[in-house]
Each structure stands twice: as structure tokens, then as C-alpha cells.
């Protein structure tokens, strides 16, 4: 048996004849969603529920200052809404900041501008985690 990408496959013509196929957009998107959901729990919301199957990701995530999660009283937070095109991560997602609490308009606009810059810089790679980490550090 040979190990290919962490999976064990039998040796032989089938395993050796097919070169590794790149992951599909949908698989890359779904893998990234699973990671985000496992990290952020109930602060993560997949907005595609109830929509037709195989829609590109649309999420909302509650961003709070680093270290503050759950029901503890938070004086600053904002919802990050992300809508991905079918070809994400090779196309930049649409980003909005909504329902801001405890942040000035200037800070919200600065954060949104920087997130859009980061999304463009990281075009071609799954990048939500990096964008979210940046957002949390700046809240």
C-alpha cells in the first residue's frame, strides 16, 4: 500500500497512473468552512442553509476582541459577512462589516479597507483564517 495525501491506497497501475488532481473549488471552500466552524463555534454562521445545494460560501462571523467569546459582556464587536464567488479562492470574496458595537466609523472603515487589501493579496489561497485573525487582533 502507498500513502497518498494521508490516505492509504493499494499499489498498482491505478494508484501510479493517475497524477494528483488539484482540489476542486467546492472542496477547498467546504474544507475551509469546516475549519472555521470548528474554531469559532456558535460565533460562526453558514448562511447557505435552506438555499440550493452547491452554493458558494456565504458566512457571517461575530468578531470580538481577542480572548472574549461566548456570553461574557463585550463592549466591542462586529459581524463579518463574506460572500464568495464560485471560483473562490482564485477570486476575491465580497466582504462587509455589519452590526458594529463599540467601534467608531473610522475604525470600521479602516478595518474593512485593510481586510479588502488582505483578500486581494491572498487571492489564490484559502484565506479566511488569516483575514479573521487580522480582524480579531484589530477589534
UniProtKB/TrEMBL annotation:
One GO term describing the cellular component = nucleus
State the Gene Ontology terms under molecular function: ubiquitin protein ligase activity
Gene Ontology biological process terms, A to Z: protein ubiquitination
Q: Which residues form the RWD domain?
A: 31-139
CDD domains for the chain: RWD_GCN2
User: What's the superkingdom here?
Assistant: Eukaryota
Region called Disordered, residue ranges = 1-26
Give the PANTHER family listed for this entry: E3 UBIQUITIN-PROTEIN LIGASE RNF25, RING FINGER PROTEIN 25
Name-wise, this protein is RWD domain-containing protein
Could you tell me which species this protein originates from? Podarcis muralis (Wall lizard)
Amino acid at each position: 500500500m502507498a500513502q497518498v495525501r494521508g490516505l492509504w491506497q493499494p499499489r498498482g497501475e491505478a494508484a501510479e497512473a493517475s497524477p494528483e488532481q488539484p482540489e476542486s473549488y467546492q472542496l477547498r471552500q467546504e474544507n475551509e468552512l469546516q475549519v472555521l466552524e470548528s474554531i469559532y463555534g456558535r460565533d460562526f454562521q453558514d448562511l447557505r442553509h435552506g438555499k440550493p445545494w452547491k452554493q458558494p460560501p456565504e458566512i457571517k462571523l461575530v468578531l470580538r476582541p481577542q480572548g472574549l467569546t461566548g456570553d461574557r459582556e463585550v463592549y466591542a464587536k462586529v459581524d463579518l459577512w463574506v460572500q464568495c464567488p464560485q471560483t473562490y479562492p482564485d477570486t476575491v470574496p465580497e466582504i462587509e462589516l455589519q452590526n458594529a458595537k463599540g467601534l467608531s466609523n473610522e475604525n470600521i472603515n479602516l478595518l474593512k479597507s485593510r481586510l479588502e487589501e488582505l483578500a486581494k493579496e491572498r487571492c489564490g489561497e484559502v484565506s479566511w483564517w488569516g483575514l479573521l485573525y487580522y480582524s480579531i487582533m484589530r477589534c
